[in-house]
Write a structure and sequence with these properties.
By secondary structure, the protein is mainly beta. It is built from four helices and 25 strands. The strands form six sheets. Strands 17, 18, 19, 20, 21, 22, 23 and 24 form an eight-stranded mixed β-sheet that branches. The radius of gyration is 19 Å and the shape is globular.
């Protein structure tokens, strides 16, 4: 008989020592994104948008070199290390990454209330730690590229001062990420769900294009916004309202907008059922687990009102429900699901109101390699 050694992970507090369980409740019968949310548990008394939330999340920017974390970066200016020296953020191989420490999340619906929670407690009943699991192995952190990815010599990097790479299939980007070494992937579904939970908590369910910034979404010249790093000196969360400049959220430049970001680990089958995995990503959903069962004869698209709303399904659109919102109600973001398709996230330079934290587009075939689709590097330590 084989035995597996269980590692007793201890979830670390954020830099301010904040621990506990924080919840936001969304009233799905209230269409107003500024009125539908209330805080509960340890979130009572917190303010939407407050920097105190970052003390609980504990995420931070750093340099990652061949899977080894180096200098932490100044969160207000990524061109400098936390100690004040110049940071090598333009050097290939010194990836600029955001580290997300282990937290548990819970997403559940009761009646018309969607409850979204995050905790620093380990193995808390009802909570999922899938974002910090890779191929079934628990991790104490994961890393995401601060920028949309740049490909050089068939390898994917997160580096400042380069034009994000496009015209590559999701499988191509997957190979370029994995070519960096063990633990490297492109961004994936469970980590997207984790950062969406962060958003709902910190900004209390508001329309992200209003609460944070519109993003680079109102340009019709079919062009990427220049080189990465335009927000290096803008702090961790930043945006503006013209629609002609990149935004930044949780340290991730172009969290939405500019170009779509392929999302691995989620697949829509022939019935529009959604399947997901925490590793061993592929183009067919082979080995994936069903997270939302459907038997739909037509594709689903529209502004999302009802997500799947579970730990497994996160904020993927609930294709069995035809009730939808618009650009100013509920989640305020567009989504679509087609048969036998892979997914992209976030929207592009000309999507306008469609774009945001919850835009998921499960419409990409294995051969799609377009000018408006890129990738974001991800890493799990051993």
């Amino acid at each position: 008989m084989a035995y597996v050694k269980m590692i007793p992970y201890i979830v670390s507090p954020g830099p301010g020592g904040l621990t506990g369980t924080y919840t936001v409740n969304l009233n799905l019968n209230d269409s107003g994104p500024t009125t539908w949310a209330t805080y509960a548990d340890d979130a009572v008394g917190m303010e939407a948008g407050s920097a105190d939330w970052d003390l609980f999340f504990g995420h931070y920017p750093c340099i990652l070199t061949n899977g080894v974390e180096g200098d932490k970066l100044n969160p207000t200016d990524f061109s400098k290390t936390a100690s004040g020296s110049m940071a090598p953020i333009t050097t290939l191989g010194n990836d600029v990454m955001i580290c997300f420490p282990r937290r548990g999340i819970k997403i559940e619906q009761s009646g018309s209330t969607l409850s979204v929670s995050m905790t620093t407690e380990e193995n808390k009943s009802g909570y999922s730690y899938k974002a910090h699991s890779y191929k079934g192995v628990a991790k104490d952190r994961f890393y995401l590229g601060a920028y949309k990815g740049y490909v050089s010599s068939d390898k994917l990097y997160s580096v400042s001062g380069q034009t994000p790479s496009t015209h590559t299939t999701i499988g191509g980007f997957r190979s370029y990420a994995q070519a960096r070494g063990t633990g490297y992937e492109q961004s994936a579904f469970y980590q997207l769900t984790f950062r969406q939970v962060m958003y709902l908590l910190k900004y209390k369910g508001q329309n992200a294009q209003v609460a944070v910034g519109r993003g680079f979404v109102d340009v019709n010249n079919s062009a990427i916004y220049g080189n990465t790093g335009s927000t290096n000196d803008k702090g961790m969360d930043w945006g503006e309202s013209t629609g002609k400049f990149p935004m930044k959220l949780f340290g991730l430049e172009d969290f939405y907008g500019n170009i779509y970001e392929f999302i691995d680990g989620i697949y829509s089958n022939s019935n529009r059922s959604l399947l997901a995995a925490d590793g061993n990503y592929n183009n067919t959903g082979s080995g994936y687990t069903t997270i939302s069962s459907a038997t739909a004869s037509s594709n689903w698209s529209g502004y999302m009102r009802y997500p799947v709303g579970t730990n497994a399904g996160g904020f993927a659109p609930l294709v069995t429900n035809t009730n939808k919102g618009d650009e100013n109600t509920y989640f305020c973001d567009f989504a679509n699901v087609s048969a036998d398709r892979l997914a992209g996230f976030g929207g592009k330079w000309s999507n306008g109101d469609h774009v945001g934290v919850f835009l998921l587009s499960a419409t990409r075939s294995t051969s799609n390699a377009a000018a408006d689709y890129g990738a974001r590097l991800m890493f799990f330590p051993s």
